[in-house]
Write a structure and sequence with these properties.
By secondary structure, the protein is α/β, with parallel strands linked by helices. Strands 3-2-1-4-5-7-6 form a seven-stranded mixed sheet, with helices on both faces.
Length: 424
């Protein structure tokens, strides 16, 4: 965790400086400091006069690291839970992050049980919307935090005295005569405007702590400058990435348009294929109808031949009758009715023959029309097949262009990734 992280080494050093009157000669319990500072904050408490310091964390790896880096005879690092600590054994409990107390007031009660009769609990709540030193160091937002009222209310349930101190960030210059020893210190806050609290520090106990006044704690500016310079260099290194990303988004847009066109062409191919299938179906139906018409025409022709044969037969009969009339002129009177009947029959047969001939002609015309319809259906099917082929060709061309666009997009992405890798 960085020096300027929220509740990190910079924050804790400032808080410990402010509550130094409560540290000297006291038994101090530190919660969360070992993780944030790797043991350095516990050493700072000893330097401020603490009689003994117990720094606790629930992670053994954190404790082992702090003990290896910041060992001291008056400092003990222990991996333990709050319930494992002895009651009424500490004059001062320092809790780095007090936000969980608002959601679990029972934890505040457990901390109260650890204090001696005149002891104090000191904890803090970060203000989400405020701009602190952690923001200047590039740390992200705090996320969801309990409200100020919930935080204070959870503490007031278990401590008669809850004093709130604001912790605000300061940026400025230190001006002093060269070589001067212990110069008089003055603070000019005219240019800073009203202070903005980055955290609320709560000092809780059975009686007020008696802390007053304002404390200005100076911290090293070099880490903040290094972060700012690194951010500027990163911004310069990535100056071209925005244009590349814009080109990439434009290529992606073109690819989307090509894919939409491809989808439209595929729909057109499907429609033309359906039209082709329908045309082929109609052609098959027409072919089937023509076969039926051929059968009917053959029947009509057969009937016509039969009638013609009957007509020839009847004409033969007529000739026989006429011959008989010639031979039997003498019998003309007796055969007059028979001759008239035969003549009427001949006329009837002639009329029937003409009617059959007309029907045969109509059948021939129908056959010719069916043949013309079949030729038209074939031409329609061939045209649909030609259009489907052209649509398929356009679809293949669109797919080829889409693949080319995708290749260009992948190349652009690789260039962006390479540019980012070079920038990193």
């Amino acid at each position: 965790m960085g020096f300027y992280a929220r509740h990190g080494a910079g924050d804790l050093r400032a808080r410990y400086s402010f509550v130094e009157p409560l540290v000297a000669g006291r038994r101090v319990l530190e919660l969360g400091g070992a993780r944030a500072t790797r043991g350095e904050s516990a050493l700072g408490l000893v330097e401020r006069g603490a009689a003994a310091v117990l720094s606790v964390d629930d992670d053994p790896a954190v404790i082992d690291d702090a003990a290896a880096r910041s060992a001291h005879p008056f400092v003990e690092y222990r991996a333990a839970r709050l319930d494992d600590l002895p009651r009424r054994s500490f004059d001062l409990v320092l809790l780095a992050d007090g936000a969980p107390l608002a959601a679990d007031p029972g934890r505040a009660a457990g901390l109260a049980e650890l204090l001696s009769p005149r002891g104090h609990l000191v904890t803090a709540l970060a203000v989400p919307e405020a701009a602190g030193l952690a923001d200047l160091a590039g740390e992200g937002p705090t996320g969801a935090q309990p409200g100020y009222e919930a935080f204070v209310s959870a503490l007031q349930q278990h401590f008669p005295s809850v004093e709130i101190v604001t912790q605000a960030a300061a940026v400025g210059w230190v001006l002093a005569p060269a070589g001067a020893e212990d110069p008089e210190l003055s603070i000019d806050g005219a240019a800073s405007g009203p202070p903005e609290a980055a955290a609320y520090l709560a000092v809780c106990g059975w009686e007020p702590a008696g802390l007053d006044g304002m404390l200005l704690v100076t911290l090293p500016h070099r880490p903040l400058a290094d972060v700012a310079r690194a951010a500027q260099e990163a911004a310069r290194d990535h100056a071209g990435c925005a244009a590349r990303e814009s080109d990439l988004r434009a290529a992606a847009g073109r690819l989307g348009e090509r894919e939409a066109e491809l989808a439209r062409l595929e729909e057109e191919v499907a429609r033309l294929s359906a039209d082709l299938e329908a045309a082929l179906g109609r052609a098959a139906e027409a072919e089937s109808g023509r076969e039926g018409n051929r059968g009917e025409l053959a029947g009509a022709m057969a009937e016509l031949e039969r009638l013609r044969a009957g007509e020839a037969e009847r004409r033969g009969e007529l000739e026989s009758v006429r011959a008989l009339l010639a031979e039997k002129g003498a019998q003309a009177e007796r055969s007059a009715e028979a001759a008239a009947a035969a003549q009427a029959r001949l006329a009837e047969l002639d009329t029937l023959a003409r009617s059959q001939a007309a029907e045969a002609e109509i059948a021939r015309n129908d056959l010719s029309q069916e043949r013309a319809d079949r030729a038209a259906a074939r031409r329609e099917a061939e045209e649909a097949a030609r259009q489907a082929g052209e649509a398929r060709a356009r679809a293949e061309a669109a797919r080829f262009e889409a693949e080319a666009a995708r290749s260009g997009l992948e190349a652009a992405r690789r260039e962006v990734e390479e540019a980012r890798a070079e920038a990193d």
